[in-house]
Specification:
The protein has two domains: 7-111, Rossmann fold (3-Layer(aba) Sandwich); 114-210, Rossmann fold (3-Layer(aba) Sandwich). Helix 4 crosses helix 5 (153-165). 29% of the residues lie in helices and 21% in strands. It is of the alpha/beta class and 213 residues long. The protein is built from seven helices and eight strands.
């Protein structure tokens, strides 16, 4: 049970030195959760922006905050959630007891939430509301990386869940940086319609530039 009086939430985003909009969803989550008064304090930290992950260790006064809940605002488990964030925040597994007396609790990335499937289908319908689904291939586009094989797991999982719904002629998980590549969509699909849903946290350069190209 979370005690609002002595607990804090730290939302961790990737951030970007190129695209200032990259941090917007993380900051928006922080603002909304702060408004709900669930925690005594809510802060955001980033890998590529300020405040940095290293600085985040010192964001919460140990005299007032006894429990810190860390939630990665990432789509999937992968290199950042399993390597970078724990390293930078000096976390030892799911629960870390610090010398200051604080307990830091490390949660799963938001992309693991069961509602993601529903949200992806909803977005697909918003993109192409009048397209016959039985004549359409749905592409779930994620980043992917050769640094960690788990990076692709979330997109595979969501594609399989949507596939089981039986709505679309075909549902494929494709990637920016690993196979199957989104750039090969012409080879991968054989339907008259193709709907592309980016599976990213923010509307950054991948969504606006890389995927359309």
């Amino acid at each position: 049970m979370i005690s609002a009086s002595d607990s804090a939430l730290l939302i961790v985003g990737h951030g970007s030195t190129v695209n200032p909009d990259s941090s917007a969803p993380t900051l928006a989550h922080g603002t909304e959760i702060r408004r709900r008064n669930i925690f005594a304090d809510v802060q955001c930290a980033f890998w590529k922006e300020e405040p940095s992950l290293r600085d985040a260790i010192f964001l919460f006064d140990p005299d007032a905050i006894k429990n810190v809940y860390v939630v990665p605002n990432f789509i999937s488990e992968g290199y950042f959630t399993q390597t970078v964030i724990p390293r930078e925040l000096e976390l030892n597994g799911r629960v870390t007891k610090r010398a200051s007396g604080q307990t830091w609790n490390y949660g799963e990335p938001v992309g693991n939430h069961p509602l993601m499937t529903e949200l992806l289908v909803q977005r697909a319908r918003e993109i192409a509301p009048d397209v016959p689904e039985n004549q359409t291939s749905l592409l779930i586009v994620a980043h992917g990386t050769d640094l960690n094989e788990n990076s692709a797991v979330a997109a595979k999982r969501e594609a399989e869940r949507i596939r089981r719904l039986g709505r679309y002629a075909n549902v494929l998980n494709v990637y920016m940086e690993e196979f199957p590549l989104v750039s090969d969509w012409r080879v991968l699909t054989n339907t008259p319609n193709v709907v592309v849903v980016p599976f990213f946290i923010s509307d950054g350069l991948h969504s606006y530039e890389d995927i359309p190209v």
